Amino acid sequence: MSTVSEPINLSLPGGVDTGLTPKQLADKYGLTVSGRRPGLLAYTKQLWGRRHFIVAFATARLVAQYTTAKMGQVWQVVTPLLNCAVFYLVFGLILSGNSVPKYIPWLCVGVFIFQFIQSAIQSGTGAISYNLGLIRALHFPRACMPIAFTVIQLQQLLISMVVLVVIVLSNGLMPGLTWFQVIPAMFLLSLFNTGLALMMARIGAKTSDISQLMPFVLRTWMYLSGVMYSIADRVHKWPHWVQQVATANPASVYMELFRHAMIPSIYSKKHYGSSAEKLPPHVWEMALGWALVAFVIGYVFFWKAEEEYGRG
Amino acid sequence: MAETTMITDREERDARAISAAKETRTPTVVVDDVHIVYKVHGASAGKGSATSALSRLISRKRSPAITEVHAVRGVSFTAYKGEAVGLIGSNGSGKSTLLSAIAGLLPTEKGGIYTNGQPSLLGVNAALMDDLTGERNVVLGCLAMGMSPAQVKERYQNIVDFSGINEKGEFINLPMRTYSSGMAARLRFSIAAAKTHDVLLIDEALSTGDQAFQRRSEARIRELRKEAGTVFLVSHNNNAIRDTCERTIWIETGELIMDGPTDEVVGMYERGERP
């Protein structure tokens, strides 16, 4: 071993780089700090490059979700139906006294829409912490995870919408042109939910306690949003600021849009006279506003901690 | 006879590495006086009980259960294009911590780690998606690494063949949770190795594979190096290090003990000597 006598350092740079410090060497060859977060634009580009991954991941997860249940994917249809049945039992039969005409389809829209918001938030909260293995093993923009989970919930909502069409038709309501309004409404709602999921994903990744607290927050929100009773019936008894908050509540706004699209007859004075609800003014503007605000804030908020997911 | 030719091969290889060190080389990983400190939550007893959590809330004390572990203490080295670097040291010496930090999964307390592109870490317990089939894992893994669906289709069969998962039946169609740890590790390595990496960090990920797979993966590592990447290998199998790496870094209690040609460093390590 002739090498022992002359100590050779394989680590030090040779040739023209002899004598450079590690930092100078890194700078000269354009090496970057490992795990540094890319800029917002570069990040978005990376994310767009992973769009096939997001869709494939969501589809695989949706299929795997029910593999342990014997009835398999039948549950995707049965679960929303059972949800509606429970609410109808309690609020339609036991606590009856709703002025809403066509209560069953009206209730189902509310339940399905709130379910979409609720499950997007819940799965978003666990999006990072339940997929740590994948996040540590492979490199991809982490926003793929909460977005993919929102896509899963969107697929679930689409199945629910098919169920809803059956319910609406079986209640003697005819399909109409307003049904097409569901498409932009669903787009805005998905944008809103993605924003919430991104926000919750970052919070949930840092504070796992939040998943214990979320069910209570969500239940309160649901009861305040008029899923099973009409806010318009009661709103005039409340103080002014509560009225404003109640009408700006994003969950109510999106439910209103879907109800108006699917069951327009309950909003028409011709059929129901003074008991008809009006579609409150500026609902579409508010829906657009909430979608943009939630998505932009959620996206930037999530990206700000990109390098920290999977650490520790 | 075979044994002696192997050794001369290695001596030649190490000598080449030493002469190459005098030339200008392109660095891919620069580790500059790095310190890594872990904060471990829940290390002290009693955190789990409700009464102790409540009394902590009432007395407004910060959680006492945070213990700091100084895992890496001032390590510096530079790795260059086309190098395969072995990392050795006893259990708990900080090898895996250092790899995690190079991969960007752990923050450094002091010092800096600079890399060319994004290093990929292959750990022994890096699970993919356990409840999905091997096939789904291959497709999703490739898509996550940024391949297009067409590229995935093209490479899919190669990945499955390389992993050897289907040698004993159609295991690729079963959920990954039904795989043995060796099979899962093989599939994970096959997925990760399907892409060209600038820097590939392998943490004991190959040790669970069988002989035939280890030969295949050593060949693949050589290929990756030719494609101008740098490979880091953590292993307790010194022969695997000898066969794959021309340079070895020896770490003990978070400090760099030795950095040099593999035969020299591993020899010292095995004899229990210190430089």
Question: Can you walk through the features of this model?
Answer:
Chain A is an all-alpha fold. Chain A contains 14 helices and one strand. In chain A, helix 5 (103-126) packs antiparallel against helix 7, helix 8 runs antiparallel to helix 12 and helix 8 (182-206) runs parallel beside helix 14 (283-303). The radius of gyration of chain A is 26 Å and the shape is elongated. The two termini of chain A are 43 Å apart. The model of chain A is unreliable at 1-6 (pLDDT under 50). Chain B has 275 residues and is α/β, with parallel strands linked by helices. Chain B is built from nine helices and nine strands. Chain B has helices spanning 2-20, 50-59, 95-102, 134-144, 149-163, 181-193, 211-226, 238-244, 262-271; strands spanning 27-40, 67-80, 84-88, 110-115, 120-123, 199-203, 230-234, 247-252, 255-261. In chain B, the strands form two sheets. Chain B has a six-stranded mixed sheet, with helices on both faces. In chain B, helix 7 links the parallel strand 6 (199-203) and strand 7. In chain B, helix 5 (149-163) packs across helix 6 (181-193) and helix 6 runs parallel beside helix 7 (211-226). Chain B is globular, with a radius of gyration of 21 Å. At the A-B interface, helix 1, strand 1, helix 3 and helix 6 of A face helix 1, strand 1, strand 2, strand 4 and strand 5 of B. Strand 1 (32-33) of chain A pairs antiparallel with strand 4 (110-115) of chain B, so a sheet runs across the interface.
